[in-house]
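=== RUN LOG ===
request id: a7f3
mode: sequence -> structure
chains: 1
length: 91
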Amino acid sequence: MALMLLSFDLDDYDEWKQLFDSDPAGRKESAKGHRIYRAVDNPNEVFVSVEYQSVEDAKALRERLVSSGVLDRFRPKGGPTVVEVAEETTY
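=== RESULT ===
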């Protein structure tokens, strides 16, 4: 399993969400799912994680996302970064 992580400081969450949902880079073709997090004290601070079966799938989507130009519209303050789980613990 691999994840792609991004973070944004948005002026308009609803506008960003509409673009995200339109899936301009084809995320749904290879992703297993995603999570969107909003900061409690600043709901325009948004964090996104998208899960993929493999690092290769995540890297391929990252390349499509970057080359599509969609990140020029809403520039991430962090990412897109592909990561693997190093440790997972449940309490």
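=== NOTES ===
The helical segments are 13-22, 55-68, 70-73.
The mean pLDDT is 96.
=== END ===
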